[in-house]
Amino acid sequence: MEDSEKIMNTGQQSPKTAAKSKDQMLSGAAWRTGADMIGKILGVIYIIPWYAWMGRFGNEANSLFSMGYNIYALFLLISTVGIPAAIAREVARYNTLDDPNMAYRLVRQMLGVMLVLGIVASGLMFFLAGPLSALVGGKDSADLIPVMKSLALAVLIFPSMSVIRGYFQGLNQVKAYAMSQLLEQIVRVIWMLAATFAIMKLGSHNWQNAVTQSTLAAFIGMLGSYAVLFYYLQKSGNLNKLINPGPVKSKINALEIFRSTLHTAIPFIVIGSAIQIFKIIDNSTFMNMMPWVTNYSHNELLVLMSYFSANTDKLTMVLLGVALTLGSVSDPLITEHYVQGNRRELATLVGYNFQLYVGFMLPAVIGMSLLTKPIYTIFYQIPSGLQSSLFVFAILQTFLLGLYMIVYPPLTVMDHKRLAMRIFTLTLVIKLVLQVPMILIFHTYGPLLATTVSFLVGVFLFIRKLHELTHFSIKNTVRGIQGATLLTGFMAIVVIIVEIILGFIFGKSPGRIASVFIAAIAGGAGFYTYLWFAAKLGLLEKWFGLRGLSLRRKLHI
């Protein structure tokens, strides 16, 4: 009761305090968004020199890198189990209750728990490197073992690092959080490129060793991140308080928080890792099943896998990251309206979420598909017919995968976790049933086809249940989607015309520099066309409110 009163009293802020809180939130959002954007850009740009320095082994290297990272990403999800968000929530709570020492004790205890979890997860990945490599890489996968072991080092320290990030998030000191993420990416990319250049241009030219050093960069980057976090802890004076916290007013059990968080987070982890799990299934089945029906060597299979998976993933993951961001922004609002019983607002929000997603993602995937040749040339090489068609397939499929990322969270936050788990399970079963026959019949197209069919079923079931729960207006939603589709059509016409004109200037097989100009000019023309029509039809204001109006004024439309 006393705690509740304190929280209620703290909620009665003066206008000055409320303005300060708003400024903190806007500042934090700016830091987080800026760091995330720069990190994503670095995560794409590094591919150009890295792939080029790998020479004729670029595709094999990218596949080896990707196979290791798919397993690694799954281990990261499992090893953190939603703890950073829980830490942030509890730290904010105890600071609100004027018991900061309890927050310090909580963080110190959770550091111990997550350190143990990191050791366990890292040990499993390290000692199971052989079996895991054989699972995802086929029988001739000895070159994947050192990659797995190098990534196990990053798994060792990530869980404890995530606790400190959660602590800063709970204090709303987002600058420290954002800077740690940014420096992690910068250090990682520098190590990757420096090591790859040293090995492939100055040293042994062993591309497998270069890939291992590139994956070891994840661990080196996290060391840089840790250094930033400790710097901010020391600068703020919180490091000594974490080591020696004072007397507390409350009681807490870190293991109990861990257990309750685990119980809550498991559905989110399992359902949210669907794309990662499907990628691992693709790796393991393709590399193990293709030798049954073809005479391709291990390295030739790595090349083929880079065509439909590794090469496309580096670019499509940026789009999926935006889809995840769109979903995460709406989740708290959906939760709020659901808890308060505001069914009308809930229905409006869900329908608006679909329109906003289509308004962003549809032109993005269509634009990338139309500019496949210059984009692929910029990052990799002039694509063959097979490379181009697989790239287009994967890009278009991203629309479906991104849609999945925004339709499952509302069910979980609306207390329908079991149903969401059942839909995910059905999606996974369909994938497993179709995977092998699709590969045996369609080869490189097989994994993409199996994923597409399974996610179509899953997304349909999620949307149908969302409609049953919220009764969002299908008519209004479809009308908004039709608007985005029409604008995308106009955009596509402009991109095609500009690309044809530039083709006369730069020739049929433009190199990397020419492809940059083609992608920038044709893509820019298409993007402006989309914004211009969206502004004229009033869709910018509908999607983005006052920000859309501001954008319209800046574009003088």
Task: Describe the 3D structure.
The longest helix has 43 residues, at 298-340. The model is unreliable at 1-22 (pLDDT under 50). 87% of the residues lie in helices and 0% in strands. The protein is mainly alpha-helical. Helix 4 (58-80) packs parallel to helix 14 (298-340) and helix 7 crosses helix 8 (145-170). It has helices at 2-11, 15-45, 47-53, 58-80, 83-96, 100-127, 129-137, 145-170, 174-202, 207-236, 238-243, 254-272, 274-293, 298-340, 343-370, 372-379, 385-413, 417-442, 446-470, 474-506, 512-536, 539-544, 546-554. It is built from 23 helices and no strands. It is found in: Cell membrane. It comes from Lactococcus lactis.
Give a brief description.
By secondary structure, the chain is mainly α. About 85% of the residues lie in helices and about 0% in strands. One of its GO terms (cellular component) is plasma membrane.
Number of helices: 23
Question: In total, how many beta strands?
Answer: 0
By secondary-structure content and strand pairing, the structural class works out as mainly alpha
Which ranges are low-confidence, i.e. pLDDT below 50, for 5 or more consecutive residues?
A: 1-22
- Helix fraction bin: over 70%
Order of helices and strands: HHHHHHHHHHHHHHHHHHHHHHH
Mean pLDDT level: 84
Q: Classify the oligomer.
A: single chain
Integer-rounded radius of gyration: 25 Å
Biased composition (Polar residues): 7-16
Membrane topology: Multi-pass membrane protein
Subcellular location: Cell membrane
Main location: membrane
